[in-house]
C-alpha cells in the first residue's frame, strides 16, 4: 500500500488546524522580497490542494504535483468547488516531466521529509532546478533535527472524535533524523467502523546537508529561517526550517 492510499480520505479531517494560511502568506512574503515577479508556481507534493487552491485564488497560475492519485482526486474536486483553475499532475518528484520555465516551486508540510536518502534529495533538487527559470525561487521546509529527536521519535499520539480515531506511533530508523510513523485509523462508514493501517517513512537531514545539495544542484541559498518567520533564526527550539533558494544562471 502506498502512503496516503486510505489516509487521503480522512486526511483533511485531521489537518483542520494545519497552518495552511501561514504557508500561503510565507510564500507571498518570499515572492515579494526575493523575486522581481511571480506568475506561475509548482506546488510540489500538493496533497489535497489546500496551498495550491489558496495560491490559485490569489491569481497565480498553479500546477499541483503529487504521487498520490487519491490525494489529487480530492484536490481536483476542491478546485472545482472553488471554481479555480489548477493543473494537477500525478508524478514522482524525483522524475518530473514536462515542467519548465516556472517562476517558483514551493514544497511544504513534510514533503521533503518523505525523501529519505541523500541521493534522492539531490535528484529532487535537480528536477526542481530544471523546472525553474533562471532566478526562479525554490522554497521548502523540513522538520528540524532537534524537533525530530526530542518531540517525535519514540512518541505516541492519538485522537478520537465522533466518527474517526487514530493511534500514531513514531519509531526511530537506523540513521540520524530517520523515523517511521505507524498509523492505525478507525473510520466510521454507515455505522460501521473500518480499520486501516499505514506506515510512513520520513527523514530529515542537517542544515549543512541541504545547503550542500542545493549548491551542487545549481541553486544559490539566499535565506534560512524557522517556523514561518523570515526574521526567526534556527535554534534548538525550532520545529520547521525554511529554505529559500534561487536558480543560478
TrEMBL record:
Domain Methyltransferase, residue spans: 41-136
Broadest EC class assigned to this enzyme: transferase
Keyword set, alphabetical order: Methyltransferase, Transferase
GO molecular function: methyltransferase activity
Gene Ontology BP term (one): methylation
EC number: 2.1.1.-
One Pfam family this sequence matches: Methyltransf_25
Name of the molecule in the record: Class I SAM-dependent methyltransferase
